[in-house]
Write a structure and sequence with these properties.
With 170 residues, the chain is of the alpha/beta class. It has a single domain (2-167), classed as P-loop containing nucleotide triphosphate hydrolases (Rossmann fold). It has 6 helices and 7 strands. Helix 3 (94-106) links the parallel strand 5 (84-90) and strand 6.
């Protein structure tokens, strides 16, 4: 059984933990980051003989390490080097979220952009050209409304495809 580590990173209030809970169900573990008081969430899901371990990083606005949350997120991404980063952004406030997304992409880690809160964006009349955004950023973009269960199966499939393709020898 192959195990992959996936970091969930994003600004506060993007629904990152809702995505985490929706993907992992009740298999979450809550603890503290070593030497820190910021809560750490880990959980997993199993699919086709693979274990996908998710680490829900603290909400941060950048990887500049001005706050404890930013320092923890940066340290995990740079030192732990997860197999994949799910950069979770609020689809209704995308411009505000893109700064962190671009910093995550600059780490060189494999990533997917999760445009969460799609229902809120639709209600506000926000329209996002997902193929153009994906092309511009160079990563797959998955649209979700995690609190309603929308897009989660597509997200699971995209995660599995990205990681299993990467791990399969040519």
């Amino acid at each position: 059984m192959t195990e992959f580590t996936i970091a969930l990173a994003g600004n506060p209030n993007t629904g990152k933990t809702t995505v985490f809970n929706a993907l992992t169900g009740s298999r979450q573990h809550v603890g503290n980051w070593p030497g820190k008081t910021v809560e750490r969430r880990e959980g997993d899901w199993r699919q086709n003989g693979h274990v996908f371990r998710l680490v829900d990083l603290p909400g941060a606005y950048s990887l500049s390490t001005y706050t404890l949350e930013e320092a923890i997120a940066r340290q995990f991404l740079v030192e732990e080097r997860p197999d994949l980063v799910l950069a979770v952004a609020d689809a209704a406030n995308l411009e505000r979220n893109l700064y962190l997304v671009v910093q995550i992409l600059e780490t060189g880690l494999p990533a997917l952009l999760v445009l969460n809160m799609a229902g809120v964006a639709r209600a506000r009349g926000v329209k996002i050209d997902v193929p153009a955004l994906s092309n511009g950023l160079g990563v797959p973009v998955i649209v979700t409304a995690a609190s309603k269960g929308e897009g989660l199966e597509h997200l699971r499939q995209a995660v599995a495809a990205a990681l299993i393709a990467e791990a399969t020898p040519s």
